Amino acid sequence: MTPKALTISQFFFKKRLHLTLLVLILGLAYVVSSIGLGFQTTALFHAQDGLIWLLHNFIPNAESMRYWQDIGHQLVRTFLIAVTSTTCAAVISLFLAALGANTLSLNNAVTWFIRGFSSLMRNIPIVAWAMILLFSFKQNDLTGFLALFFMTMGFLTRAFMETIEDFGMDKIEALQATGANYLQVIFQGLLPEIAAALLSWVLYMIENNVRDATLVGLLTGTGIGFIFDLYFKGMRYGAAGLVVLAVIILVVGVEVISNLIGRLIE
Amino acid sequence: MLEVKHLMKSYDGHKRSLTDVSFTVATGEVAAIIGPSGAGKTTILRSINQLIKDDEGQVLLNELDMRQLNRSQLRQARQNIGMIFQNYNLIEPLTAIENVLHGCLGNKSTLAGIFSLYRQSEKEEALQLLQKVGLGNFAYQQCRHLSGGQKQRVGIARALMQHPKLILCDEPIASLDPKSSTLVMETLRQLAIEEHISVLINLHQVDISRQYADHIIGINGGQVVFDDHAEALTDTAAAQIYRKDLVLNEEAAV
Predict the structure, then answer these.
(1) Which candidate in A171, A173, A178 is best for mutational testing of the B interface (most B CBs within 10 A)?
(2) What's the whole-model pTM score?
(3) A179 reaches B (C-beta below 8 A)
(4) How far apart are CA B32 and CA B241, in angstroms?
(5) Which of A18, A35, B32, B39 is most buried, judging by how many CB atoms fall within 10 Å of its CB?
(6) Which of A54-63, A108-117, B238-247 has the largest mean confidence?
(7) Does domain A62-265 have CATH number 1.10.3860.10?
(8) For the ranges A125-129, A197-201, B12-16, which has the lowest average pLDDT?
(9) Which of A149, A175, A167, A161 is nearest to A95 (CA)?
(10) Domain-by-domain residue ranges, chain A?
């Protein structure tokens, strides 16, 4: 079992060698992939022309300001869909995670089933979810809700499961030693310990879903994504720019609020 | 009071952790289990309240064999056995008094336990127990803000809330400074004398076990190699307990 003893200089030489190799591999990956694509890094230097056109056309002007009411209305709807889909998914995920976590699990088959299910849910890209659901549920808010809901459920189940598994068995043991039963241990021991971590995952997912909801709306023809598409295709670039600005403000706002909440619970 | 007879346990089917362990603990007695790391001390303690399942033997608490109980009988029997841990194992975001109240979960219905529906008398008792261990002023503090010594005393109060006949202590002072250690050991000793609770402690320190225990059980390599009054533990006997060649599974040492 004893590894071959290294001298101190050999040890540091080895560490440096590993780092150098890693950098070389990354460099090689870049070179190979850009040759494969025929992509020239120098093209980046000409990107400014495109950027200038973009800035020129997408800056909201006085004319686009008359759309703000429509935009505001859709923004709120998109935000609400992101919040409801996340919170609904969180409740179900918690239940699934408690059943699927290795440390709590009563049955191995259940654990494997839940792991497989959640991995399937979250590894289907949100765009694919939206397209698939579009066929069954047509263009309405429910389609967007479900697309976000399924993906979030898959993601949160996994995240919650890991949170539960990180929680030390020794504390569970301490409560079992008092004679507490399974559900009492979960509600009196596990949940208070992991509540803060669960909440921060939910907040993160709300942030993430506000962004994704825009994209989903673009595909399913609802919410803020839809009016962006509408303005953009109607060449009302100023209004489309205003939509982008509104989304940025919303996302930053949600991030600030979730940071505040996060600090409050600590 | 507590009788352990021919207890055997192996992990992974072959590595023997306990080969043949027998000892008794009398009512109101402080007994210390000493021995090198990996000797099987923790396994013995956890077999008593069946947190781990042993392979063979008997664990009799007032003539009731802990190993023969079904799930709900075991739940009831565990109420008689308080346990405190090296790492306290409190629910840190909860307050001290909530952690103490966990001690009465064993006689609560599932729903009452889930929703923390404790009786007024139980709440008052929990507060009294905290006062008794000198933490009356910390009852409404989150446990994560308490020091190690304070956490361990909350752990003792939680164990007392069970009205136990026996308290198991798994390395209770291994993470504490000398002053807190003394306080914890003195509290345990007092409980044995005043409340006639038997206390069974896993310890590393020979001198502390001599100082506080009535009865010392030396374990090495999963076997009892010493079992006598504390006064009988001479330096030679102690050295014998810690003899290296008896340690069977050093890799299991934590």
Answers:
(1) A178
(2) 0.81
(3) yes
(4) 13
(5) B39
(6) A108-117
(7) no
(8) B12-16
(9) A161
(10) 62-265
* A22 min Cα distance to partner chain B (Å): 35
Residues of chain B positioned with their CB less than 8 A from the CB of A174:
83, 85, 89-90
Query: Span A118-132, mean pLDDT?
Result: 90
> Mapping DSSP to helix (H, G, I), strand (E, B) and coil, where does residue B247 land?
coil
Lowest mean pLDDT among A18-22, A42-46, A110-114, A169-173: A42-46
Flag if B78 and A193 touch (Cβ within 8 Å).
no
Q: How many CA atoms lie within 13 A of B82 on its CB side?
A: 31
Cα→Cα distances A129→A59, A93, A135, Å: 32, 18, 10
The beta-carbon neighbor of A170 closest among B89, B106, B116 is B89
B93:A184 CB<8 A: no
CA B65 to chain centre: 18
Q: Domains along chain B?
A: 1-80+165-254 (3.40.50.300), 89-163 (no CATH)
CB atoms near residue B100 (< 10 Å): 30
φ, ψ of residue A57 to 5 degrees: the values are -90, -30
pLDDT by residue, tens only, chain B of 254 residues: 899 999 888 877 667 788 889 999 999 999 999 998 888 899 999 999 999 887 788 999 998 999 999 988 999 999 999 999 999 999 999 999 999 999 999 989 999 999 999 999 999 999 999 999 999 999 999 999 999 999 999 999 999 999 999 999 999 999 999 999 999 999 999 999 999 999 999 998 899 999 999 999 999 888 899 999 999 998 988 988 888 765 554 444 44
Q: Which of residues 134-173 of A touch B (CB under 8 A)?
A: 168, 170-171, 173
Does B105 contact A176 at a Cβ distance shorter than 8 Å? no
Q: pLDDT at position A266, please?
A: 66
| 8 Å CB contact of B85 and A178 | no
From residue A83, give the alpha-carbon distance in Å to each of A141, A203, B212, B229.
Answer: 13, 9, 59, 66
Give the pair of three-digit tokens for residue A181: 């039963």
B164 token code pair: 């136990």
Interface probe with A: pick from B42, B72, B89, B200, most Cβ of A within 10 Å: B89
Residue B165: CB atoms within 10 Å: 19
Q: Say yes or no: B78 contacts chain A, CB-CB below 8 A.
A: yes
In whole angstroms, give the CA distance from residue A110 to residue A118.
Answer: 12
Q: Do A187 and B106 lie within an 8 Å CB cutoff?
A: no
Q: What's chain A's average pLDDT?
A: 88
d(CA B138, CA B141): 5
